[in-house]
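Hey team,

Filing this mostly as a record. A colleague (T.K.) asked me to run one chain through the structure pipeline before their review meeting, and I want the input and output archived in the tracker in case anyone asks later how it was produced. No errors, nothing strange. Just documentation.

Input sequence:
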Amino acid sequence: MNRPFELTVTHAKQFERFFGWPVLVIFLISFIVMLRTQAMWVIPVMLVVAMGMAYKGYMEYRVIRHFAEHRAVARVLRYRLIDCWIDAVSLFALFIPMYVNEDAFILIGGIVALWGLTKSYREKKWKERILGHQSRLPTYEDVLERREDVWNYHQK
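Output structure:
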């Protein structure tokens, strides 16, 4: 296996361990405390969460693209990355007008809600496109867990 790919998987595992349950619990507790005391602190915290989401999507793309055998599959993986970035930016952008203008918050909240409602449809269509060009593409979790059939598939 090539060294850059191993480093990418190692960094992805470290990120998963860091942004796992401990950060989620700390985030939820701090979020509740911030809403009760100083609500403006929610904006920088949501920026950190959005950056974490975007980085996780980027790491997923970097890991899975090595298994793509067709250009169309790599293109769909890039679309999924862009979708992840849009999710992260919209999550962060949702909290800014909450303190500035409530009408804008309702409008942006509606747009973010519509984007979230169509996520399952987009994922289904992307999966169909991937399966149309490559019948067996391992998932991000399979690669991080180093299942033997995934690694053997990658070595072919």
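Quick notes for T.K.: DSSP finds nine helices and no strands in the chain. The first helix runs from residue 3 to 18.
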